Amino acid sequence: MDANTMAIVVLLGSFFLMVLLRFPIAYAVALSSVLCLLAQGKNLNSVCQLMVKGISSFSLMAVPFFITMGCLMGSGGISEKLIALANACVGWMRGGMAMVNIVASYFFGGISGSASADTASLGSILIPMMVDQGYDDDFSTAVTITSSCEGLLVPPSHNMVIYATTAGSISVGSLFLAGYLPGALLALSLMIGSYIISVKRNYPKGDKFSLINLFKQLGISFWALAAVLIVVFGVVGGVFTATESAAIAVIYSLIVSVFIYRGLDWKGVWRVLGDCVDTLSIVLILIATSNIFGNCLTQLHVPDMAAKAMTGLTDNRILLALMLNLILLVLGCIMDMAPIILIATPILLPIATSIGIDPIQFGIMVVLNCGIGLLTPPVGAVLFIGSAVSKVPMERVVKATLPFYLCMIITLLLITFVPAVSLWLPSVLGGMAK
Fold first, then answer.
1. CB neighbours of 326 closer than 8 A, spacing ≥ 6?
2. How far is CA 425 from CA 161, 169, 216, 419, 429, in A?
3. Above pLDDT 70, what percent of the chain?
4. How far apart are CA 37 and CA 295, in angstroms?
């Protein structure tokens, strides 16, 4: 075994061993990188330099702003308004509260950008409400956790910013636009699955549809939804950068939460900012340590070797695309979302582009694959949050989620093999990344 191969074995072997031993992922990334450098006999002086370089990026400044915006809007009384709006839209259907749950997640995800925040905020309201109306508690939890993944696709999503930065030369605005149709497609597939189950189990309908009530709720929810418009259309229209739009959105969210909806007082704002710091510290440490890991991968030519290994197995583009999805799904079962984006993108993106998958399309594939991973044991963070909120054992939640896994996989395959699902909206509105 030559020195290069030994270094790769040390890097990847130690990393996956520490992941299986449940090391904090940032420690696993950093320690495996250090062990790799030691195995190569290299000086460790570059470690700190690489960490600083990893977070020294103007575009990454958007990440803390988007997280802060999501925390402010999520704690500022937005949830109830968006649930009422969703109820006015789809509550009249069979299994109406399940449909409300799914549509509310689409609206709320566009504000929080976080599946965990969606599950915690909406789940604590909607799951007890659904159970009181005669829905099974495991079904209610399954609908909540699966629909929360819409928030990862609907902008503004800080995970998309992380992907754009890691992939390089990708327009954040185009990536934001690319998420709308896949997010809507995911919502539609989950609604079809929910409707079939609701008819089978004879779940109740809601109140009759009222156009007057719909316009009333739109008026109430306008201030919340406008935050998304500021970010997306500001970036796409070239009025400001993604970082500038995120900063403006934070100020806007503060005004809406404190002065318009009055869901937060100034003590609550300080509490929310403290929670943001906790989340940000985790994300930024991951980005910093992942830069060392990525540097090791590049120096050892792992992306090239992975590409040659996969294309050596088959030259069939369909099989290669399925293999990319399978790798991401497996990683999603054992790792959190941000590390997957940071570590897997440099390895898998060249393979994806070599078989004709656009980098923006691949970004949507990565995000949805990671979202499915958030719902799968043993490291499914959203699965654990849903189980904790509903107090339903995780085994029952997983069993109830099985039909929805199928809906999500179908959506993933459509995104993979029908490029227009992701690329049509960016191409129509311009700013398509090349």
1. none
2. 18, 19, 29, 11, 6
3. 94
4. 10
Specify the residue for token string 């311009």: 430
Structural tokens at position 330? 């497996």
261 compared with 380, residue with greater pLDDT: 261
Domains in the chain: boundaries: 1-44, 54-429
The burial class, CB within 10 Å (0-12 / 13-18 / 19+), for 26 is: buried
pLDDT given at position 366: 93
**Both tokens assigned to 396:** 């029952």
At residue 411's C-alpha, the angle toward residues 369 and 323, to 5°, is: 50
What gap in Å lies between CA 194 and CA 303, rounded to an integer?
A: 40
How many other C-beta atoms lie within 10 A of the C-beta of residue 259? 9
CA distance 269 to 194: 37
* Token pair of 19 as six digits: 């992941």
Residues in the chain: 434
Going by the DSSP 8-state scheme, the letter that residue 149 receives in this structure is T
Query: Is the model's pLDDT at 317 over the cut of 50?
Result: yes
Closest CA to 115 of 84, 159, 65, 77: 159
Q: How confident is the model at residue 160, as a pLDDT?
A: 85
Q: Write out the two tokens for 111.
A: 């504000």
Task: Check residue 192 and give its pLDDT.
Answer: 94
CA distance 124 to 45: 48
pTM: 0.80
